[in-house]
Automatic annotation (TrEMBL):
This is DUF4382 domain-containing protein. Residues 34-176 form the DUF4382 domain. The keyword Metal-binding does not apply. Keywords: Signal. InterPro entries: DUF4382. It comes from the Bacteria. Residues 1-19 form the signal peptide.
């Protein structure tokens, strides 16, 4: 079976970001009929592949009340989503005037899927397709463009959750998982994992360098779940918001990670060095579970895993 392993946040899976110029005050011109918006693309990390190539041709905005707005890029953006990790953003639209008001969603418009591909770590090139029934999955939640102001959003196109290779298929499928955040309301989480020490603990069953799981709110270690578990209601908080791989930056045993574009608030962070294949529920062992607080515009450093 082919699978996408967990690597770093940015494409934690396949990720996309929409950025608009940050956080303006609409009170200075309440009668204005337009606002300024910029759009970019970011990605959350994924393992097992070195490239996830797509083509973006534009954006479609759906006002809560009014005609759809189409923004066509001057040139199609040929993107390797894995280049957009660790908070990197690809600008798609910059300081674009659009009608002010409430919007129901924003949708990424894709180019010819014959140009989509996945390059595996072994060097093989695989086809990549977005099933027709999942095209609507390329749209985000609602947002507001302030009259006479500027606004900044990021669409996180979570590749780790989106990229699958179903049994019996001869190609990867992209089943989009997107989240939209306001750039003025998000922060960044960084930390380190002492993988050399953890790898000596046979009870953990380490089979690769592992990844850090980030959950919204306070979740006890016994309730932590993997990527494939689908939960609803209050239990949805026990599914990871993002999963980011750890990366060896130097010659020592400390591996680092970064999770960007996290809305301000309380989070539970934990680590597993077992493979999560995103195609079946896995009985993962977690270690180093801790609570962190993310503040808007700030970088929070988590305690080293395992703690002293």
């Amino acid at each position: 079976m082919k699978y996408a392993l967990i690597k770093t946040f940015g494409v934690t899976a396949l990720a996309a970001a929409v950025a608009a110029c940050g956080g303006g005050d609409s009170s200075s011109d309440s009668t204005a009929s337009t606002g300024s918006m910029s759009v970019g693309l970011t990605d959350a990390p994924v393992d097992g592949v070195s490239e996830v190539n797509i083509v973006v041709t534009g954006l479609v905005l759906q006002p809560a009340d009014g005609e759809r707005v189409s923004l066509t890029l001057e040139e199609p953006a040929n993107l390797n989503l894995l280049d957009l990790q660790g908070g990197a953003v690809e600008a798609l639209v910059t300081s674009e005037d659009v009608p002010a008001g409430d919007y129901s969603w924003m949708r990424l418009q894709l180019g010819e899927q014959s140009e989509f591909s996945v390059l595996t770590d072994e060097g093989g090139v695989e086809n990549l397709r977005v099933p027709s029934g999942d095209q609507r999955g390329l749209q985000t939640s609602g947002f507001v463009v302030p009259a006479g102001g500027e606004v900044s959003f990021t669409i996180d196109f979570d590749v780790r959750k989106s990229l699958v290779y179903p049994p019996g298929q001869d190609q990867y499928l992209l089943k989009p998982v997107l989240r939209l955040v306001d750039n003025s309301e998000v922060g960044t989480l960084v930390g380190e994992v002492d993988y050399a020490t953890l790898n000596q603990d046979e009870t953990l069953g380490c089979n690769y360098e592992g990844a850090v799981y980030v959950y919204t709110g306070t979740v006890t270690e016994e309730n932590l779940t993997d990527l494939n578990v689908t939960l609803t209601g209050d239990e949805a908080e026990t599914q990871p918001l993002v999963v980011v791989p750890v990366n060896q930056d130097g010659g020592d045993s400390l591996y680092s990670y970064i999770a960007a574009f996290l809305p301000a608030g309380e989070y539970t962070v934990s680590y597993s060095c077992q493979i999560d294949d995103n195609e079946a529920s896995d009985d993962l062992t977690f270690v180093g579970t801790q609570q962190v607080t993310i503040e808007a515009g700030e970088t929070t450093t988590a305690a080293t895993i395992p703690s002293d």
